[in-house]
Amino acid sequence: MEFFERPQVGERTVLVHVNFHDQGAREDLDELKELAVSAGADPVVVVQGSRRGPDSKYFVGMGKAEEIRQAVVDTESELVIFNHALSPSQERNLERLLCCRVLDRTGLILDIFAQRAHTFEGKLQVELAQLRHLSTRLVRGWTHLERQGGGIGLRGPGETQLETDRRLIAQRIKQLNKRLEKVSQQREERRRSRRKSQVQTVSLVGYTNAGKSTLFNIMTAAEAYVADQLFATLDPTLRKFNLKTEHDTVLIDTVGFIRHLPHNLVAAFRSTLEETQDANLLLHVIDAHTEGRQDRIVEVNSVLKEVGAESVPQIEVYNKIDLMESAEAHIDRGDDGRPLRVWVSAVTGAGLEQLRQVVTEYLQWQDAKHRHDDVAWKEVATKQRYQLLLAPMAGRLRTELFTAGLIEGETHTEQGEWLLDVSLWPRQKEAYCRQEGCRCLNEYTIGVIT
After folding, report:
1. What Cα–Cα distance (Å) separates residue 61 from each residue in 38, 54, 375?
2. 19-23, 225-229, 249-253, 418-422: which range is least confident on average?
3. Collapsing DSSP states into helix, strand and coil, what is residue 372?
4. CA distances from residue 218 to 14, 18, 215, 270, 345 in whole angstroms, order as listed
5. Domain 383-448 maps to which CATH number in 3.30.70.120, 3.40.50.300, 3.60.150.10, 3.30.70.240?
6. Of 80, 86, 299, 309, which one is least surrounded by beta carbons within 10 A?
7. Which residues contact 210 (CB under 8 A, 6 or more apart)?
8. Which residues touch 165 (CB under 8 Å, ≥6 apart)?
């Protein structure tokens, strides 16, 4: 059956984009082109139109449908992709008229996800989403068996075959849900283990192709797959995030979001997206160079709300400043000194130390707040100058402090110890002073760095 087969790479494709008067129903044409290319299609022509609302039969008017049909004939295209969600009957009617396969935005995104899934869990989640989407369109593959067709030789078990197929799909969905429930329980056990070990988690979220994986790799020395395409990352990746805080920290790279993300996908990937819900901090990665970034911020926050992660603390990370004129890496702070957003470039490395600083500050303040509800931000997250006394056997720690650029002055004692003037956050100081051969001379604290 044709609709079960995956599209071949390089299929000649007609793209259809309709501008509706309702701003909430509008889609991005450039994004459709990126999605089509990411799926392996070869867009040869774009048919555009404008309507007040979708037509019940063809989604577009009869005249525009005929224009699409002519474009398919002229370009010898094998596929038509709509930049909108189509109903099963609209897809069926369009395929009969155009004599080729028709795919809507939801089906296109599902196809990309199917190509990107590599882990066992990811494949299960994609299959579940695809079956849920397919179950409403099942009649397309069995029109030759429908009793409504009438005529000698066309009557018979049409409805029985449909019911049988629907039942098989329902059984498979039930099996997938059971398997994913086990995977979800395993994820919850791992999260519970991290909480018990007081491991802090920082989750990267953001619109697809905002540069999350590039940022993830450079911050953790990982080798996650990176490509200039939509949904390059599908399966979540966890790596240790080296910060000078009291507890270990894990950085999580997650699937990118997109405008009008299909509900079937959100439901299927709920166990994966729960990683954001359980995080101590969200780093909302934003493509600072792209137009309409504010709309994308709204879309990401909408999905976070849908998965119950809207209350998790969030810092905005404006990435790709290397593509902007006269943009420099810096931190935007509120009146109380709390960081609101960081401007970085994951490609050049600009601003990454500021990002580490901001994450360290936030986790320090969050940890202190668990013990003292009324603790002020500046009491915990403000960098200060200290004097550290290092024993002669702590040469490795001294080298680490120099490499990190934390030492501002150094003298020696008669006993051969090092007396270092350092700039540290309070919790950073605590982490260093727990190491053997290091002692903080608190009585010589020089003062708060302004």
Report:
1. 29, 8, 62
2. 225-229
3. coil
4. 39, 40, 5, 27, 11
5. 3.30.70.240
6. 299
7. 256, 285, 286, 287, 296, 319
8. 138, 142
Q: Which CATH superfamily is domain 2-103 in?
A: GTPase HflX, N-terminal domain (3.40.50.11060)
Q: Rounded distance, CA 336 to CA 349, Å?
A: 27
Maximum Cα–Cα distance across the chain = 108
Residue 4's pLDDT is: 39
Q: Where in the chain is the domain with CATH 3.40.50.300?
A: 198-371
- Looking at the chain, the number of H-run helices and the number of E-run strands are 14, 16
- What pLDDT, in 10s, does the model give residues 333-351? 888 778 889 999 988 989 9
Instruction: Supply the pLDDT for residue 97.
Output: 93
C-alpha 416: how far from its chain's center? 52
Extended beta strands in 83-187, E state? 101-103
Q: For 235-253, b where at least 16 C-beta lie within 10 A, e where not — what string?
A: bbbbbebebbbbeebbbbb
The pair of structure tokens assigned to 179 is: 């398997």
CA dihedral (258, 264, 270, 271) positive or negative = negative
**Per the CATH hierarchy, to which homologous superfamily does domain 198-371 belong?**
P-loop containing nucleotide triphosphate hydrolases (3.40.50.300)
161 vs 145: CA distance, rounded Å: 8
> Which segments of the chain belong to CATH 3.40.50.11060?
2-103
- Local confidence band at 140 (pLDDT 50, 70, 90 cut-offs): very low
d(CA 208, CA 133): 22
Query: What token pair was written down for 262?
Result: 């299909």
Taking the C-alpha atoms of residue 128 and residue 177, their distance in angstroms, rounded to an integer, is: 8
CA angle in degrees (0–180, nearest 5) for 128-129-133: 115
3-state helix, strand, coil in the chain (%, to 5): 45, 20, 35
Rounded-to-integer distance, Cα 401 and Cα 421, Å: 11
Q: Average model confidence (pLDDT) for the chain?
A: 79
User: Over 50: is that where the pLDDT of 395 sits?
Assistant: yes
Residues 422, 401 contacting (CB under 8 angstroms): yes
Measured in degrees and rounded to the nearest 5, phi and psi for residue 257 equal -95, 170
Letter for the amino acid at 146?
E
Does the predicted model carry a pTM greater than 0.85?
no
The amino acid sitting at 6 is R
